[in-house]
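New to this. Look over this protein:
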Amino acid sequence: MASENDTNHAADAGVNSRQVSGEQEFGVESISEVLDKVIEEIRQGPGRIEKDLTEARIVGKYRTQLMRVWDIQAEQACSMLEDVKARARGYKLFGSELFRELQEKGIESMDDWNEYASVTERDGELFAEICDVQTSVSHIRVCLASFPEMGKEDDLGPETRKKSGD
């Protein structure tokens, strides 16, 4: 059982260390190319069907009705595929902007992202607590400016050290 957990942990570590910034490609170009080919094939369909119906000697009125239905269906399908293609481009743009932003923040792996997110969350909670103190911003600035003058204290702050040293 321990080896299974080790294997899972190793797999998780591989996922978390994956690069999230830099040159990332989504394969949108190849999807777009495939969609273009599919759309072209669908648009050529009515002509092929009409030729086959003519060769099969289908009565003209039936052929006309079938072709009208096929044209409508083909254009609806092409319209839907064009929408998918446009959305893929949007996702690529979003991804490019996201990767640029991550790179600017120095986030290069999922571990970096997880650390960034937890620090941001912790900072938000700390800020909320400071706001709950209901003190003036100028007082907080004076206190924060005095920290470098105090020297390096433990994480609990100078007040805790004085109390524990008494």
The chain has six helices and no strands. The longest helix spans residues 60-104. The radius of gyration is 31 Å.
